[in-house]
Amino acid sequence: MGKPKTIDAFFKKKDVSHSEVNTPPPATNIDTPIPEERPSKCPRIQPKEIDTTSLERDPGLRPQICEFPINQQDEIRRAYIKAGPYQPVLDYPFKESGNQRRRFNVLWFDAHKNWLEYSPSKDAVYCLPCYLFGKKPTGRPGSDAFTVKGFDNWKKVNDGMNCPLVGHVGKDPNSPHKIAVKCYEDLMKHSRHVDKLFEKQSLKEIQDNRLRLKASIDSVQYLALQGCAFRGHDESLDSMNRGNFVELVKLVSTYDHRVASVVLENAPRNAKYTSPTIQKEILHIIASKVRDAIREEIGDAKFCIIIDEARDESKKEQMAIILRFVDKDGFLKERFFHIVHVRDTTALTLKKEICAVLSRYNLHIENIRGQGYDGASNMRGEWNGLQALFLKDCPYAYYVHCLAHRLQLALVSASREVEPVHQFFNHLTPIINIVVGSSKRNDELQATQAEQIENMIASNEIETGRGLNQSCTLQRAGDTRWGSHFQSISSLIKMFDATCSVLYTISKEGANYQQRGDAEGAYKLVEKFYPQDFTEQEKTLLRFQLQHYELDVPKHPDFQNMDTISELCRGLASSGKSKIYHLVDRLIRLVLTLPVSTATTERAFSAMKHVKTRLRNRMEDEFLADNLVVYIEKEIAKNFTVEMIMDEFYSMKDHRRA
């Protein structure tokens, strides 16, 4: 090999194309085949934040546990363990097996209540512990029967000791199922976690942690019950106002020197329990406990859904879900359960979101016995409306158009048949539109009204006092807004002179001929329903119960002063006669479940305006829902002690445990 002629030539780089690699490829043995890249048997979901509160409950539809990000698998396991095995009570479908028809039996849940799950989508059963902790399927026939494919051979279940459900558990104490159950039980016991072995906290550290967490829980609970904002614009140490939450923690600390010594700046940097994330977690725990309490109130009772939508301060379409039911003591309840952000208001979208919420809390569509909506076409549509979609799944979920809306529409329609009333309202709307149609005219109206109030006070024509003679404006009337016509007329009467003055000014000095003409014109006229809930035998028995009921209950002194069916239901429960006339009691509860109006949803939207204000218009959807359920259902939220919330907090995530 010859030497380079010059030093410059020796160091001169050769031209290489963009496709060439500067470094030489690693040496390979030509006799060794290059292994092919095999696809993973369990494709992993891309790492991102997993919402453990909305995990798929149906075991036939949920992803395998190994598909979730590794660092979140334990958290997801805890969420499923907390929810428990999915055991819906349904009208299970039949399968043809030779000359016989077989189906799943709900009694199997009682025999295997700690692990057996049922999938409505697959009509098959699964094992929750094996799903969470079992090994990956080996490919051997039957290795994935209770985790991936599901078991649905109902014929073999009643085969005594050869029952596949018994065989799945196994006799060996080290069977795969029993090992999975042991892991299942160990995960929620913090003292057995491997990482807890490395946490040797002193008793004082434990007490300090609990004390500072208690201060945070008290502050979050108070602010949520009052519907107040949590955070401030500037929460730095030198800020004059660090936000409601931090300022409230500071206030709490002034009443107890022990609290003051462990919170905020006196707390360890890794255990302050004051971050926005911690605040949201505490609030979410309280909200979840409220929903769990409502779910417990419902129990196995039939219920009604009342739905309405409205836009919040950030122009997001929010759907409120109200549940109406009769509790075990005979009290009729309407509970605010959830509010969900929907991207559109089509019937299919609304149904999907409603079903997702109901499924998350084991509330089955088959138990719906009423639907309460307003008269919008997407709700009441006979073929494709929301009520029609639910009727396809449950033919006894009767739709009731909100009676308050119907009364309002009937009154508006009837009033228009009276010529003077029709003419009056025809002119009322243009008057209001002309006067308050721009900021300039509205300011002129306010100034004119203020001047008139001053003159009337000076001449002793009106009284003065706190809350009197406040400035206001004209209100528009809407066909579906309750009482809006009355409010519109009242506002015009109150501001009549000021309105006339503004109209006169516009008629003389309007910007164009149309505006002047409109103002001038306005200035001149100023057994059938519940077959699934009763068997044929019960229908016959119900007739006899009703005969005895007529002779017994109305004459009983305890029922003499009961005027409503709701009072009657409570009386039957408190007197114990609901057990004697159990079929009559069931019928009364079904009738009470039917909705009357959507007033509860309207109150929920009023609360939403109070909670999500212009200054809080960037609230996350889940944070808004948690705030509302605690604020609206404060009757339930007040019952939870700090210790209950604290225990739930420690079981949620691996925080420093007391």
UniProtKB/TrEMBL annotation:
SMART domains: ZnF_TTF. Residues 100-199 form the TTF-type domain. InterPro entries: DUF4371 (IPR025398), HATC_C_dom (IPR008906), RNaseH-like_sf (IPR012337), Znf_TTF (IPR006580). Residues 1-45 are annotated as: Disordered. One of its GO terms (molecular function) is protein dimerization activity. Residues 35-45 have a biased composition (Basic and acidic residues). It comes from the Eukaryota. This is TTF-type domain-containing protein. The lineage of its organism: Eukaryota, Viridiplantae, Streptophyta, Embryophyta, Tracheophyta.
